[in-house]
Amino acid sequence: MKAKKYAAPDKNRCVACGACVKVCPVGAISVYRGAWAEVDLEKCLGCGLCAKTCPAGVITLAERSAE
């Protein structure tokens, strides 16, 4: 079963520092063209480690829609 939540970075406020990429236990986050963090929703566990680590505070955990 998939996690109920997923990481949702605000790409308009993301500073592309890569801190979230380093702490993600499953490698679900990448920095797109050096501009912002992108999350692979298929891999994301919804653990919140990236949100806790983000120095800019732009990652929130969002509820997945029931599928």
Describe this structure in words.
The protein has 67 residues and is an alpha+beta fold. 15% of the residues lie in helices and 27% in strands. The chain has two helices and four strands. It has helices spanning 19-23, 49-53, and strands at 5-9, 29-32, 36-39, 59-63. Strands 1-4 form a two-stranded antiparallel ribbon. A hairpin with a 3-residue loop joins β2 and β3. It is globular, with a radius of gyration of 11 Å. The model has no long low-confidence stretch (mean pLDDT 94).
> Termini distance?
11 Å
* Largest sheet data: 2 strands, antiparallel
N-to-C SSE string, H for helix and E for strand: EHEEHE
Shape by Cα distribution: globular
Structural class: alpha+beta
Strand order in the sheet with the most strands: 1-4
> Gyration radius, to the nearest Å?
11 Å
In percent terms, what proportion of residues is strand? 25-35%
Low-confidence residue ranges: none
Helical residue percent band? 10-25%
Averaged pLDDT, please? 94
Q: How is this fold's topology laid out?
A:
Elements: E1 5-9, H1 19-23, E2 29-32, E3 36-39, H2 49-53, E4 59-63
Antiparallel strand pairs: 1-4, 2-3
How would you summarize what this structure contains?
The protein is of the alpha+beta class and 67 residues long. The protein is 15% helix and 27% strand.
